[in-house]
Amino acid sequence: MPKAAILTALEQPLEIHDVDLDKPHAGEVKVRMGASGVCHSDLSVQNGTLMGVAPIVLGHEGAGVVEEVGEGVTSVKPGDHVVISWVPQCGECYFCQRGQGELCKAADASLASGGLLDGTPRFSWNGAPLSQMAASGTFSEVSVIPESGAVKIPDDVDMKVAALIGCGVLTGVGAALNTADIKKGDTVAVVGCGGVGLNVIQGARIAGAGEIIAIDMNETKLQMAKEFGATATINASQGDPVSQVMGMTEERGADVAFEVIGLGPTIDQTITMTRRGGQAILVGVPRMDVMVNIPAFFGIVLQEKTIKGCWYGSSNVQQDVPKLIDLYKKGELKLDELISREISLDQVNEAFDAMKTGEVARSVIVYPS
Ligand code: PAD
Ligand code: ZN
Question: Which of 64, 128, 138, 193 could disulfide-link to 36, CB 3.0 to 4.6 Å?
Fold first, then answer.
């Protein structure tokens, strides 16, 4: 019986319980988790920003070792090390066929149901079904996930680092390298320098940005942002960040600006600080009632501004995970530096508290091997 961290109802602290786990069905794999990062999206399910069908095993940023495979599984075998993709990409739907696997139709349905691709979870608790976040549920010692959610990696990659690749790194670096079109020498602004935002910053550096302006309210994060490639910082708690970005860009605004928090006011700021003809990339997940209000003519047509959403860094996980590991091994991606704290599963609520105060880039749960 694996131990798992369960959200029993909205706004409740997670509870650690022994849970039942079914065998992998056809096309599924059982993974013993090595590590799981604690991402803001986990907190967002707890507070109702993101949908979740409680009771639910949270956690979607993980890596582990395949223990058992269901019928018909060919891409991984027991003993393989894998990164968990919280968008299992079916490869067959309209979106996957057009190179937009991050929008996979099958994955979307499982996100909404709290189950795997057939809509049912493999966890149960007290005899009742127990949902698993984003077809993963990495806050459990063991989980069963779709085959397409298990991306094989070399055995020598540290589990903590591999776990972070599963969400924050794919999303953040992908936002810069895949979703946005950053040209050499561009001025990039990044609003929010948490676990995902720091990865946008290093992605922008790799893309060849000339200036990278990091914006956060927390000084520690701004210091980290510099280590990850920011060339200038703005503390948003000390004055309007938009006018400061304008001041740094001859009143034009940034060529590309990213919102990586998920708040209405910072989304407005990000769009406003984007220059005429520039790109505003929205990564942070806002509450469902948050609206973007922009004058159609003066705000968009005349401005020729692109406002683009970013889901999972527009990643093709089978291609991008090895690419990111390669960049890490070459020393171009800082991943160890993202790990602020190593914790055990039963400290997960403390990790949520640390995220609320903004004091950590990532807390990472390390499972006993
Ligand atoms: P985090 O909590 O680690 O970082 C958020 C950062 O924003 C912190 O450093 C805060 O100090 C900072 N911040 C908060 N308020 C303000 C403000 N008003 N002005 C400036 N800075 C502020 O979160 P994270 O990096 O794990 O996640 C960031 C968002 O990205 C969050 O909404 C999460 O749900 C979303 C996300 N989206 C995807 C996707 O596919 N689009 C994937 C993963 C995460
Ligand atoms: Zn995440």
Answer: 138
Distance (Å, whole) CA 142 – CA 123 = 10
Peptide bond into 13 cis (omega under 30): no
pLDDT score for 359? 86
pLDDT tens per residue across span 259-271: 999 999 999 999 9
At residue 280, the pLDDT reads: 98
The three-state secondary structure class of 166 is: helix
Residue nearest to atom 5 of ligand 1 (CA): 194
- Distance from the CA of 41 to the center of ligand 2, in angstroms? 5
- Find tokens 């399910």 and name the residue: 45
Pairing mode, if any, of strands 187-191 and 254-259? parallel
Regions in the chain scoring below 50 on pLDDT: none
Q: Are 18 and 28 in contact (CB under 8 A)?
A: no
- pTM of this structure: 0.97
Q: For residue 171, give the ligand nearest its CA.
A: 1
Q: Please work out whether the CB of residue 327 comes within 6 Å of at least one atom of ligand 1.
A: no
Which three-class secondary structure state does DSSP give residue 257? strand
Within 8 A by CB and 6+ apart from 229, the residues are 201, 202, 204, 205, 212
pLDDT, residue 109, reads 86
**CA–CA gap between residue 291 and residue 263 (Å, rounded):** 10
Which residue has its alpha carbon closest to ligand 1 atom 35?
284
The domains located in the chain, with CATH, are: 3-169+314-366 (3.90.180.10), 181-309 (3.40.50.720)
Which pair of tokens denotes residue 273? 């600080």
**What does the pLDDT look like over 73-116, one tens digit per residue?**
999 999 999 999 999 988 899 999 999 999 999 898 888 899 99
CA 261 to centroid of ligand 1, rounded, Å = 3
